[in-house]
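Postdoc handover notes: sequence design on the structure in folder B. Input tokens:
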């Protein structure tokens, strides 16, 4: 049986923070394996990522990324910048180019330069943007975000927009569903929450 990965993950950056969100459905072909698969992970207190694709690869990348960033910060004696973290992840993904990780990632956070959001494909292509959506529900989610995005959205508005985008994708994409995990990063704090969808 061929693998057909599905998911919806979004990232939004504004002048006041970064939000990353993804739904929880883990599907394989037309079969739902789990309704509780996390696809959003906090890497440090100010960096997180969301992914879509093969859940095992997303979980493996979470462990690899955390270890590599911890090693970098201990070796260098300072926190890693978001750009450096994104380039590091991009290099890791590219190193698997002959047997790629079947996942798309969005990484975001805050550092001394401000807020950043990067999106990358399974081979590590790296693009910085104000918002992004990946996964089988991305074509639907990105339309919702593009319609309402403004650079001056406050944290609550960003969360509402991310939730709206994923809810709309869930309503049209059978491979997405079962609740939304959210990580909101501002210069003051990092908040994680789960929204149940009936």
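Designed sequence:
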């Amino acid at each position: 049986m061929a693998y057909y990965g599905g998911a919806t993950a979004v990232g939004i950056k504004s002048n006041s923070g970064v939000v990353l969100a993804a739904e929880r459905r883990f599907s394989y072909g037309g079969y739902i394996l789990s309704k509780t698969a996390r696809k959003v992970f906090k890497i440090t207190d100010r960096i997180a990522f969301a992914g879509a694709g093969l859940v095992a690869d997303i979980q493996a990348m979470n462990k690899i990324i955390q270890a590599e960033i911890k090693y970098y910060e201990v070796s260098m004696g300072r926190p890693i910048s978001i750009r450096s973290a994104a380039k590091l992840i991009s290099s890791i993904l590219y190193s698997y180019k002959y047997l790629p990780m079947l996942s798309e990632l969005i990484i975001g956070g805050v550092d001394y330069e401000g807020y950043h959001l990067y999106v990358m494909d399974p081979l590590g292509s790296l693009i910085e943007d104000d918002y992004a959506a990946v996964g089988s529900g991305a074509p639907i989610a990105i339309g919702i975000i593009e319609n309402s995005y403004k650079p001056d959205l406050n944290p609550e508005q960003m969360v509402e927009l991310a939730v709206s985008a994923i809810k709309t994708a869930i309503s049209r994409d059978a491979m997405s569903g079962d609740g939304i995990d959210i990580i909101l990063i501002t210069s003051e704090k990092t908040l994680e929450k789960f929204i149940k969808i009936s």
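Context for whoever picks this up: The chain has a mean pLDDT of 92. Don't rerun without checking with the PI first.
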